[in-house]
Design brief:
Order of helices and strands: HEEEEHEHHH
Structural class: alpha+beta
Radius of gyration: 22 Å
Strand order of the largest sheet: 4-3-2-1-5
Largest sheet: 5 strands, antiparallel
Number of helices: 5
Length: 180
C-alpha cells in the first residue's frame, strides 16, 4: 500500500497550506458612477467616482468618493464660471446610481488621483463651468490619469450616463456593459 501523506511530507504540506492561505494582496478599486436626473428628485445629472479597498503599501483602508459641482445651483451656472466644490455622496445615494465600470489601481495611481482631487478642490476663484469644467471633466481627468481614452463631445457634457457609456466604448478593455 502506498501512503501519499507520510510523516516526512507533513511539514512541507503545512508550509504549502500556510503560503496558499496567506492574506490577499491589498488593492484599491475605482468605480465610475452616473446619476440620472430623474432617478432622485431634486438631483440633476451627475457623475462621480468611488474609491474603496486597501493601500498595498500600508494596508490603510480606503472608502471615499468624489464628485465636482457648483457650490450653489442657481441660474448663474448657465452664464459662466461659478464657485465650485468637491463633494462626497452619501452611501444610500450611491446605491441608487449607475456603476459603469471598475478598475483596480495601484497605490501610485491612487495618490495621483487624490492629488488631482485636491487641485480641483483648492483651485482659486470660480472654477465650475457647466460647459468647460463640470463633473464630467472632473471624472474624465481621473480616467485619463489611469490611462483611459477620454473625449468630451459637446452633446454629452450634460449627460453623464451617456458620456460614461461613451468612455466605455472608447476603452473596450473595460468590458463594460452599456447602461440604458
Amino acid at each position: 500500500m502506498v501512503r501519499i501523506f507520510s510523516p516526512i511530507f507533513a511539514p512541507l504540506f503545512a508550509l504549502l497550506m500556510l503560503i496558499w492561505s496567506g492574506p490577499a494582496l491589498a488593492d484599491v478599486q475605482i468605480h465610475f458612477h452616473s446619476v440620472n436626473g430623474s432617478v432622485l428628485v431634486g438631483r440633476y445629472p451627475h457623475t462621480f467616482f468611488v474609491l474603496d479597498g486597501e493601500l498595498e503599501s500600508t494596508g490603510e483602508p480606503v472608502n471615499e468618493n468624489f464628485g465636482f459641482s457648483a457650490r450653489k445651483v442657481t441660474p448663474a451656472i448657465l452664464s459662466g464660471p461659478v464657485e465650485h466644490m468637491v463633494l462626497a455622496e452619501k452611501e444610500k445615494f450611491i446605491k441608487k446610481t449607475n456603476r459603469h465600470f471598475t478598475l483596480t489601481i495601484t497605490d501610485a495611481q491612487y495618490h495621483a488621483i487624490i492629488k488631482e482631487v485636491r487641485a480641483w478642490q483648492n483651485a482659486p476663484g470660480k472654477y465650475y463651468d457647466l460647459d468647460n469644467r463640470n463633473c464630467i471633466h472632473f471624472v474624465g481627468k481621473m480616467a485619463q490619469i489611469l490611462g483611459l481614452k477620454v473625449e468630451f463631445p459637446d452633446n454629452m457634457l450634460r449627460r453623464p450616463k451617456k458620456w460614461l457609456n461613451h468612455v466605455s466604448t472608447l476603452n473596450p478593455q473595460l468590458k463594460a456593459k452599456q447602461i440604458k
